[in-house]
What does this fold into?
Amino acid sequence: MPSQPLTKAQRMSYRIARGEMGVLTFEPYKSEILPFWRFKTPSIAKKSSADIYAKFLAYNDADDFIGMDMSRKFLQMGMTRAKRYANHKGGRKYDKKTGEELVKDEDFEGRAEKLEASLIFKEVWEEAKRHDGYQAKKERFMKEQKEWDKAQKKAAKTNVKTEIKEEQGEEVETKPKRGKTKVKTEIKEEEE
It folds into this structure.
């Protein structure tokens, strides 16, 4: 669990996104989960996926959807990276100079191990996606995020309108922090 709880703004900046997007950028979760992520052999993949799934369950117990989703992304990334190493000896999918996709290698030492490691991660990843707590928390998070985004958009729109009025020297209505009365202030400079 993060040692410092995230602010609401930090939490709402997280995007579920497609696939593994954001998995290596969203802190502090990246630093908490990354040390467990390994896929070199099936036995390493089995331990790694079990450790990451244990983090997933701990985040579930802490009612931390972002931690759960980041764990899910690391499981998915374990599957996809192991598969890449099974398809491309050395793991390089694209040519360095041209950027074109390289032809898949069919038979090389270690290929079967990488395929097996990929399947291990895939099984645990699918279990995480089906987890009841994950699904419920995902729905709740998406609803909360949608409301947050809507409120932020509305606030930004209000700020833009206020700035335009101020630039044009018009009166701007401000709401006091206490009470329900409206105070009007005049922004125009006084003519001498």
Q: What stands out?
A: Residues 105 and 138 are 38 Å apart (CA to CA). The mean pLDDT is 84. Residues 8-141 form one domain.
